[in-house]
Design brief:
heterodimer; A: alpha/beta; Alpha-Beta Plaits; 2 domains; nine-stranded mixed sheet; two-stranded antiparallel ribbon; 30% strand; B: alpha/beta; Rossmann fold; two-stranded antiparallel sheet; elongated
């Protein structure tokens, strides 16, 4: 099994477009699992028109104070790095959305009054269609930690990876913890970039992150010709990273995307060939 | 001071372009400040064409990380058992902290029977304060690569923006993409949300999710449909969705390559192509800004 991440730094550069198209192309010849790790805004099932069914609930432990044991000393609130415990009229009040489950309060409590309960933070779905299998993570609305969903997704990928030749991981935008978790374990990453100053700026950031994580990176230049390709070319030469394919900008591709259809283009075939 | 937050759920729908031009328009009418809360990929300053060389920068620390004093450590492994984030590595009898995974919660330091773990402040972001050609301040930050805690950095950006606000009547906030912690931190305390979307199944799905967060905080919002003519049928769906939510459609902007050309020139589109001004006037008017 080979795990390849599709990422990009900036939002809307075409990560999901390229990830879905690449998965479908590889799926013509191989067993392919596409993992949608953009838990904030998972869209791969929409682009591919795949019906998903729920297979797992992602849970996290959160603190519950046992009132009969609590003396109101406030030590729990003072050690909490997340400001998830507030002292209200001499009693600790737990703000569950802020609690990370780290357990510092339980260690600090002299009365053993800190107990645990579980809260749901997201769900994992699976589906099949267009010749591939799909796993998709979804953060519960109002929950802050997308990374927990991606970690669960990683566990499920590990369980299933023997059944597949390729696992394509579609990451979220940005460079923080949920993206890092999605990139972990990938031997190779394709950073999708657009040729604008913003696109080039954010590409520089994601290439830096790949360097920190020691993941081999390459660049897919999307919407080639819409701005200045040189902007992306310069970042790539500075960071010694190859541009593996270019997809030109066309209103037709935009409309096909807007209609929710997987994109077909020779640049996708070329990328699939390189991956193989 | 009123706060308006521009967000989108999905990236790349034109959020920063619209935030930049809206800010330029509003700055002609009142005193404003801007906070770029996309600390993963901060772009608002670029979209506003702020001069990098005239920007003040400083490193900030919004969190701590654990450090093990090898002289005091007796390799009992309590820290590893305690850490909920799997951030303690064990190699032979040597324990060390993965700086990428450490959340800075301090549980290991509390658990260590030898007192061998110290929590130290670590610089995790660079804060920038710049001035636009129009004369208003833009505060932004860039999270250090591989660092967690973007929510706290966003809160710091907003605090710094408040400091520079002076007599400003309005703060324009450009949120990160997604619906997680940096977005929650961006939207908290806002008086109004401008939600930008485009007519595609993905963008509508993401809009619904991010507005779920906005409704959670009880903040009123309006919707901007960018590139509306790319898929008129879907634009109608978004308008119906807005109707169900009792939200105003603040503007419908047709697809226009000038938005990208403006970015390439590092100019807000409202300056690059003055004909686009009407859309931002419409947003400002309908949003009561």
């Amino acid at each position: 099994m080979k795990r390849i991440a599709v990422t990009g730094g900036k939002g809307g550069t075409g990560k999901s477009t390229i990830a879905t198209a690449l998965a479908v192309e590889l799926g013509k010849r191989h067993r392919v699992l596409l993992a949608d790790a953009d838990a904030d805004c998972p869209n791969d099932h929409l682009i591919l028109g795949i019906e998903r069914k729920e297979i797992a609930v992602v849970k996290q432990r959160v603190v519950k104070i046992n009132d009969s044991k609590c003396t109101g000393c406030g030590k729990c609130a003072s050690v909490c790095a997340y400001n998830a415990i507030a002292m209200v009229s001499g009693k600790p009040l737990v703000l569950e959305k802020m609690c990370s489950g780290c357990g510092a309060c339980a260690l600090a409590c002299p009365e053993n009054a800190v107990e645990w309960k579980e809260k749901e933070v997201g769900r994992i779905f699976e589906g099949k269609g267009k010749g591939i299998s799909l796993l998709s993570g979804e953060l519960k609305i109002g929950e802050p930690v997308s990374e927990l969903v991606v970690k669960k997704l990683n566990e499920l990928i590990k369980e299933k990876e023997k059944e597949f030749d390729y696992v394509i991981v579609d990451t979220a935008a940005g460079t923080h913890c949920d993206v890092i978790s999605a990139l972990e374990g990938s031997g190779f990453a394709i950073a999708v970039a657009e040729p604008t100053p913003l696109g080039a700026h954010d590409l520089g950031l994601i290439l830096e992150l790949l360097h920190v994580l020691e993941v081999k990176g390459s660049v897919f230049l999307n919407r080639s010709g819409i701005g200045k390709d040189e902007l992306v070319e310069k970042i790539c030469s500075d960071k010694k990273t190859k541009i593996i394919a270019r997809m030109p900008y066309s209103k037709k591709i935009m409309e096909s995307y807007s209609a929710g259809k997987p994109v077909e283009h020779e640049s996708i075939e070329k990328t699939a060939g390189l991956v193989e | 001071m009123k706060k308006v937050c521009v967000l989108s759920g999905k990236g790349g729908v034109g959020k920063s372009s619209i935030a930049a031009s809206l800010a330029v328009l509003l700055s002609e009418r009142k005193k404003i400040v801007c906070a770029d809360c996309d600390v993963d990929a901060s772009n608002l300053s670029l979209a506003l064409g702020v001069d990098e060389n005239r920007t003040e920068k400083r490193k900030i620390a919004t969190g701590k990380k654990a450090f093990i004093d090898k002289k005091k450590c007796v390799s009992c492994g309590t820290c590893k058992k305690t850490c909920y984030f799997g951030a303690i590595n064990e190699k032979g009898s040597e324990f060390s902290v993965s700086q990428l995974k450490c959340e800075g919660c301090g549980a290991c330091a509390l658990a260590c029977p030898q007192g061998a773990i110290e929590m130290r402040e670590c610089e995790n972001a660079e804060l920038s304060v710049g001035k636009t050609r129009q004369g208003f301040i833009v505060v932004s930050a860039q999270l250090k690569m591989g660092e967690s805690g973007s929510g706290k950095v966003v809160a710091e950006v907003k605090r710094e923006t408040e400091k520079h606000a002076g007599e400003s009547e309005l703060m324009v906030i450009d949120s990160a993409a997604g619906i997680g912690c940096p977005v929650i931190a961006s939207v908290t305390g806002s008086d109004f949300v401008v939600a930008v979307t485009e007519p595609s199944p993905s963008a509508l799905s993401d809009l619904e999710r991010v507005l779920g967060v906005v409704e959670h905080f009880g903040i009123p919002f309006g919707i901007v449909i960018n590139k509306h003519d790319l898929n008129p049928a879907f634009t109608q769906k978004i308008e119906e969705f807005a109707g169900e939510k009792n939200a105003k459609v603040l503007a419908k902007i047709p697809y226009d390559r000038s938005f990208v050309d403006a970015l390439v020139e590092l100019k807000p589109v409202i300056e690059f192509k003055p004909e686009t001004r009407v859309f931002f006037e419409e947003i400002a008017e309908k949003a009561g800004l």
